[in-house]
Amino acid sequence: MFIKRRKTKQIKVGRVPVGGGAPVVVQSMTTPDTADVGATVEQIHQLEQVGCEIVRVTVNTPEAADALPAIKAQTQIPIIADIHFDYRLALKAAEVVDCVRINPGNIGAWWKVEEVVKAVRDRNIPLRIGVNGGSLERELLTKYGYPTAEALCESALNAVHALEDIGFTNMKVSLKASDVHMAVDAYRLFSLQADYPLHLGITEAGTLLTGSIKSAIGIGMLLADGIGDTIRVSLAADPVEEVKVGFEILKSLELRHRGVNVIACPTCGRVEIDVVKLANELEKRLGHIKVPLNVSVLGCVVNGIGEGKEADIGIAGGEGHGILFKQGKLVRKVKSEDLMETLLAEVEIMAKEREAEISGNSGNDRQGHDVDEHSPSTSPRKGEIPVLKL
Ligand code: SF4
Question: pTM here?
Answer without folding.
Answer: 0.85
